[in-house]
Amino acid sequence: MATSNNGTYGGYSYNFVTCDPPDEYLCHICTLVARDPQQVTCCSNIYCKSCLDTLKEKGQGFICPTCRSSLEGKYFKDGRVERGIKSLKVYCTNTDSGCQWMGTIKNIDTHLNSCPYQLVPCTNECGEKIRRSKLEIHLTDNCTKRMVNCQYCKQRGTYQLITSSSHFDVCPDLPIQCSNDGCNEKILRHSLASHNETCPKAIVPCEYNTVGCNKKMKREEQEKHNEESMKQHLDIAMKKIDALQVTVLLPRKHVLKLNQYTQLKEEEEDWYSPGFYTSAGGYKFSLCVHPNGNGDGEGTHVSCYICLMAGEYDDTLEWPFQGEVTIELLNQLEDKNHKKDTVAFDESTDDDYKQRVTEEEEGGMYILGWGIHQLISHFELEYDAPTNCQYLKDDSLYFRVSVKVTSITKPWLTSAI
């Protein structure tokens, strides 16, 4: 039968100071000095209470192992024997570790509660058992759950966490070797990005890459490259200019007022602004507004579209039109919190929206517009105190249209008189 000195199962297996304990103190089941001794009435032998309980729980008949009589209700605690057992002298269970204590079984538990050689669980619950005399050193120097500060960022946490990869992978002050070949500097993680912007060993494109020089080099070699390639850079820049002849016109703003909003909404009529030019000699546009919405915004939003019109200077302009148009619904209370969206005319835009309309189409109001189905919902138009916004006032809406044109011009025609 398995036994444990510090448990309640089986008898005592201590090392006794004098000779072997008397046979009358031995359990006739586990053969050790009986713990909580019980005397049976059938043959007067002694058993550990835990040994009898285990025998009874086996369910194979509660029979005395010595005389085979039934033990049901036929045993009792033997106080005299227990007093004799508790007075037996034993050595500390930590004798092999150096403890020289000797005393009675009655007092050994009290001793073990203070024995410096006794193994005790770490109070930080790290899972280790340490000799009591070494516990303080363990908690200070060795416990994986002791609290420490990161040596770099000073963040506080358990030693197990602070020294793990999960912390070092994000520690902002951890010194990290620069990844640029030839750079031997160690940089704090939070400074790596700024270091790379100035690191002389970083690989960077030529400063003239936008005009066609595809050379890449270390940053420290840029100046030498620029000096050696000055003529080459000038040649490719001139070729780029000659090939593109690109003109970028800065945005020009136009403020347009829509009146009788309520009537237009109720009658579901579209409103077209007067035509306006992007610049002198530029493209002509009109703003189309659906007060009661269109497409995904029908019945719930105001929809806005920008329409290309037939203009006076169309013959000197390249088609289809390329650029960006920004439409703003203005807050009438102060110059902020305007509703804003940008419409792009680029390679992804259907060419039907980038071509000017004919006079016949314009007269019949058959105008294609490119824009936003849901510029603003109807309920957002009214006064809003927290934001100090009111887009609809006196039954009118104000729109501001800004056009940025990127066009390949016809310079040989623009100088005509």
UniProtKB/TrEMBL annotation:
This is RING-type E3 ubiquitin transferase. SUPFAM superfamilies: RING/U-box, TRAF domain-like. The keyword Zinc applies. GO terms for biological process: regulation of apoptotic process; regulation of canonical NF-kappaB signal transduction; signal transduction. GO terms for cellular component: cytoplasm. The gene is 105315407. Its main location: cytoplasm. It is found in: Cytoplasm. Residues 251-403 form the MATH domain. GO terms for molecular function: zinc ion binding. Residues 110-156, 166-223 form the TRAF-type domain. A zinc finger (TRAF-type) spans 110-156, 166-223. Keywords: Cytoplasm, Metal-binding, Repeat, Zinc, Zinc-finger. It comes from Amphimedon queenslandica. Residues 27-68 form the RING-type domain.
